[in-house]
Records
---
Amino acid sequence: MAAVAVLLAAPVVRAAGKTLKIGFAQTGAESAWRTANSESMKSEAAKRGIDLKFSDGQGKQENQIRAVRSFITQGVDAIVIAPIVETGWDPVLREARRAKIPVILTDRTIQTSDDSLYACFIGSDFYEEGRMAADWLAKRAGGKGSIVELQGTPGSAPANERRKAFADGLAKYPGLKIIDSQSGNFERSGGKQVMEAFLKKHGKAIAIVYAHNDDMALGAAQAIEEAGLKPGKDIIMVSIDAIKEAVAAVAAGRLNCTVECNPLFGPKVFDTAKKILAGEKVPKKMYNKDELFDDTNAAKVLPTRQY
Ligand code: AHR
């Protein structure tokens, strides 16, 4: 324990002027959101002349852990992780700390017994997103209706927090009931498949779809159309991310609401890494500000959506 404290106290200051080498362990490429996030990191690194070692975890935590170990062996200056799931990170984070390499968590948070194992977190407040979705729905549905929920990747922070916040938000509306909830893994094909199963099982009882991301909502919309119904009219559709395609679908009335989860935080990540490596203090948690789009504002913001 004492040795750990000594390592933590050591400042992580790198020589100015040298090319920064940063490793980024991305979760995968499951959604349009993820593609935009990877692109934001890659293009910003290229703009700044940072040597970015990018690793696509292909949806598996073990691949991400392997990537982090390889970054440590390569002697990178800093490591960025978008953790696919919340648990199981402590051992590899300890290895990074032993190598005196600071770790920035982006996008998703983790559950750890020791918060000092990472330097900071940069991303969205998933609980707040779920709460915004629930509040919007309660008003729109007039406090009643049967809901099916399309969950994100099991064990991931966005799936856990968006689920909890939505359930908490609906607690004061006994007429709004979640009648089924399954994971579509944040993928469009997953959303479509799960929605097909929901339609088979519950048929016209379904009044509302709550999807933990836009890709699953768009997949579900396709399943609903193939079943001869109109998403956005016969079934209220609410989801999260605000990718351009979803905002366009809201403007067209095919989806009803999308809560933003901004993935374009490459600049903030590298600004923060630079500060940490210069020995500056940074806030432990930095949240992006997210908005909500529905039929009142989707058409207006559509031309300026960047992802
Ligand atoms: O962690 C952010 C979530 O992961 C986004 O909402 C989703 O689209 C992505 O795959």
---
Amino acid sequence: MGFKLIDLPYNKTDFGDALSAESFDFHYGKHLQAYVNNTNNLIAGTEFENMPLIDIIQKSTGGLYNNSAQIFNHEFFFNELSPKKSDPDKFVTDLLVKSFGSIEKFKEEFSQKATTLFGSGWCWLVKLNDGSLAIEQYFNADTPVKYGKKPILTLDVWEHAYYIDYRNARPSFIAKFFDLINWDFVSKQLH
Ligand code: FE2
């Protein structure tokens, strides 16, 4: 019972140097696995046992919130990546242009917010209640689903996400990230 480590929708060797197999061994195989294990240990025998992940995130605090939110954040992040380079479709392009002025300006603002997030956290593209898109910084494990915002795209900027392949160079990881996005996944989140 409890939560299980998701299957990746690609092989851990598919990204070459952009995201190495060793990086997946640690980020997915050890870090995400630890969040899954910790969550399962914390919900055992409590009111949260058998509760859907989103409900746990919205109703919990402290260690259980941190660990369950990290399951959601990481599953979203790993599922939105693809080794096959893609581009936003017309629907997504139109929405990004409407919200940010152009695809380039979207990438600029996303990069700027991902770069300047001090310490550990997540840079998210979210859809707000009024239908507009926004780029927001979330610290540590914090996640937009806690606040009822619709998650669209995220980048993990914890050092554990890039230190093996990019060492301390977070901006290099961010620049490469745009080539790794599965834009079809992003489009599905917006429909
Ligand atoms: Fe991570």
